[in-house]
TrEMBL record, chains A, B, C, D, E, F:
It catalyses: tRNA(n+1) + phosphate = tRNA(n) + a ribonucleoside 5'-diphosphate. It holds the Pfam family RNase_PH_C. Its EC number is 2.7.7.56. Keywords: Nucleotidyltransferase, RNA-binding, rRNA processing, Transferase, tRNA processing, tRNA-binding. The gene is rph. It comes from Altericroceibacterium spongiae. This is Ribonuclease PH.
Length: 237, 237, 237, 237, 237, 237
């Protein structure tokens, strides 16, 4: 029995509110239940040094938790003077995921930064960030297309992410904090429309699992991501 | 004529939404027009080293802008590895202001941290932060009183802050970004209920002003803070 | 055809030299072909603050590349003043992997640090590090058992890691640098004796793959890890 | 009664010794009683990036305390690896103040840095720094004029700073350390010749004050700054 | 011919002014010609962690150049966020030198920090620092003896330092900046009263030298240090 | 009697293994007894900013200890975020020493970095580093000569380093850790073929010594360096 009473393959409510802030080219408040992340897409007419003059754009991600997004207050990384290993790991994952569905040549020599700031955390902040980042990227790219700054759509497919895990022996979809902190295994899947895999990060904590277990988690993730794709479609119509 | 069409002594709409996030002991989304700041109050049962064992509590503030709160994206301070001088100056001001209306002995040996994270900026982020921080502090202290953790209310009065300036020769109240970036003089006032002054930070930019000019700005600030006190009262009833 | 001429399921030569340095409680030079990593295990009679007084030990990993382990010289992280996101990600993976086969209560209140320093890099440095770290940990724990400092063996199973990927359309085992920099998909598997999975980190680069593709990579990894388990056994007899 | 026996509107002795060191384009040892600050003005033929090619110069300030300028030794900021919020706040104030009386276009594309190093502290180090910085700036600009590097004098007026406060209920001028650490309110005024205000930074500590109190402090500051203007004039004749 | 016209074995004027600042337990402004260093000795009733409870004291040194002590302005180390290798090397030398003539047991569990801040530089700042540090240490220890805080004098001998070098083929004593920047070889000697050596740091720059050359420099250093011992004696009578 | 049973003027076994790693232009594992340092020489076709366009090359050194090179584990400098003063001092010494035997104009506008990573420490790591760095530099320069990238050999002579000290009253050559930690005086000599001195760094620890003592240590160093020159010659034939 899940703490929330959800069925094993039941996601939390997905809420996507576009236009949450006004300055960014794309702005989204995404909620997976009580997890809420503000994602903005910022377009800058420059690329990192290693891409200058090569006719290719760049998509990158940054991630942060507000200090009191969590049950107990965490120190501000700016005050500590460095980003934790966890933060950097998530940032790299966000950028890699969004780039895997973007044609960087079609984007032209510009950079889009996806800032994911967790307003409230209840498990799954990285998967909500990636799923929301796609919406913010879509909105920003729509703006470039509408202005005629780019001719062809550089976004090749939708991408979404979800966590799955083995909780009290049962594979379950979309772990919340109560489950996440007690799961026997925990996996984040980043999936692309059409059944393709962009990333798998699966970790056994305490217990371990086998090939069969990995497949079960992957299939739950496909159920969840299909629901996110639908919500992304609705939010960007 | 002000860019917004406001009268010289007219504030922007004040919006205070309590309970915006669920984990913090106090949580407020405060808006001064398009400026929006999320303020949380976090209670921790410990004090800084210099206060240990002295029977006194502590109130402190932290401040940050989300990278795309502004017209163009700013670098994340956590990524740069240090907080700017401006950030530190504002943090010190927030803490000092809230401590000036708190009886730290009555608070007991605990610390309340007021995290002010600017979601969207349009001028006046530090004054909205201080004004919202009082509400978050009030909510957190109410919780301590309700739980019986403290006996007497340590909050002695309301406190609020507002910016004033001289724009195209006219003293005006509550500068927005369009005014702030072109003002001849810019002053932040932190005022306490009953006509008392906690802080004045007045700077001439380009032009200068005299005693008479300072007084006019102070009187505008009193008009503005009285409206904020009313909104704070309404939000915490 | 692989650049090295290896068959798709053929690993590079595994070389494990124990006792490479004399001060550490466990010291191993592990080679996967031209990739060479010096791993030392250091026992310290203290645990991190969050474990003090709880009767549990800790196993952690650190990772670094010598500046000229690679084709072109990389800057020294100590000179830059911080560890990269990649370094931190690998360190966290090493620690998590080794802890997944260690009973921390049986270890007692002491910490074992596994330092993995890459002497020469040719792809697969993190998987060689994890595989070598198990040997260094085994040697250090043997020393504790021999001295009577602990009664029961805290190591529950062997653990090993290997990378697999899709190179020119073919799933291949144990990517070297020439393959790694051109692979369509790249996955690191951390496996435990007996067919169990500790970690999967699979990334599509450029291309994507599906459930079938993931399974093929996993099966290659099982072939590779079984050979590493045999080499670990031989090195610690 | 003031600890020093001074009258409420009585400043400490002002001592300005020019040419204290030989390399700088302007060099001043300024004393407000026992507070002694060495200020040097350094001319560099370059401007910060945001001003390049715009035909405008820049004036900036830096501030530091020698470790044993104070009663008890303070840690060296260079050893701690960062400047405190207080230091940055003072540095920003010094630069802003001096720029408010300098025509940056007339200065041409060059930067003048005012380094204020506190040799001995007894209250009022920031106000002595600003007052001495004007003298150092004057000497450096005189040198540029004498060499024909600039044609018109970019300095438009004298500027000086002084602290005032409410000590045991009485408004007093030029707080020394004994007063500063016990004052009910503390204000720093930066004033320009002719009765104009450049900056006001007034803080209530413990107590608060009202409009009347603020005016009294401002009037004391005018008395003090007039004496500093006279000393600045004498030192630069 | 030396740029200054001095004879090869002629030192610059040595000036030692005690009591230059008032808070420190020992305070000295030492000049070797135009090189001027302010040295303060600060007594703290605590020792570094590695000495706690061992009945031994500690003597340490810190060193810094004011930004415009030199011909062209140098960046402030506090602003850059770290001390240079040169600064750390000099600090370690100052501490080691002073400890070599101090009986740390007789000092008791307290630390004396010798802060050497270069006000004006013209070559030989580290040797002036060490020579002045002995005077500041002597004054601080005299205070401890006068107060009865310690019974026996922990200072066992005088110590002084001087630079020598080979300038245009001739060994010369006490290099100034004009010589230092063109010397063929440069050596710093730290000598103890009675002909003993505490430290030699000799470097060939461009040229090299042999055993004979090293001895000549050492003999010049003995001449110079004898004069410094006399000046130290006079200053502390 | 020395702990190792060696005669006072007896060095430990010198072992030089070239080609230890494959990517670097020069790669050497040098051993002085149980002290083992991996030195690589990396050629980069760029020079530091201060040399750009001046027709001169640069030779520099970096130094690090692996965390468990020593008896007890030391913290990784990359994790602490800065290099210690000791590390920087040694790095500066390595670079200065190698540059003293290199004609930088003949090297052309390129930089050679000598990375010295201590694999195992038993005293004398800096002297082994310098002695090994010459071999790595020689190999890298041979490569440039063979490729025709430079015409004339920029290396003017061999250079080697050795430590000497006074142990239980006797001057001894090539201190190992057991001696180094108990020596009365400790000196590092960097000598050039033909009896010339590049650097002397001699420190009295506890005891002091005189002119006679310094000469005795220098003569031992000459004996040691002559043996190192022979080993360098053999390794680079």
């Amino acid at each position: 029995m899940r703490p929330s009473g959800r069925a094993p393959d039941e996601m939390r409510a997905i809420a996507i509110e576009t236009g949450f802030t006004k300055h960014a080219e794309g702005s989204v408040l995404i909620g997976f239940g009580d997890t809420k992340v503000l994602v903005t897409a910022s377009i800058e007419e420059r690329v990192p040094p290693f891409l200058r003059g090569k006719g290719s754009g760049w998509v990158t991600g940054e991630y942060s938790m507000l200090p009191r997004a969590t049950h107990t207050r965490g120190s501000r990384e700016a005050a500590k003077g460095k980003q934790s290993g966890r933060t950097q790991e998530i940032q790299r994952l966000i950028g890699r995921s969004l780039r895997s569905v973007t044609n960087l040549e079609k984007l032209g020599e510009r950079q889009i930064t996806l800032d994911c700031d967790v307003i409230q955390a209840d498990g799954g902040t990285r998967t909500a960030s990636i799923s929301g980042a796609w919406v913010a990227l879509r909105l920003a790219v729509n703006k470039l297309l509408a202005e005629g700054a780019i001719k062809e759509d550089p976004i090749e497919a939708k991408i979404a992410a979800i966590s799955c895990g083995i909780f009290e022996g049962t594979p379950v979809l979309d772990l919340d904090y109560a489950e996440d902190s007690n799961a026997d295994a925990d996996a984040n899947f980043v999936l692309i429309e059409g059944g393709r895999i962009a990333e798998v990060q699966a970790t056994a904590e305490g217990a371990t699992y086998d090939e069969e277990g990995l497949l079960r988690l992957l299939r739950l993730a496909q159920i969840g991501c299909n629901q996110i794709f639908t919500a992304q479609e609705a939010a960007t119509q």
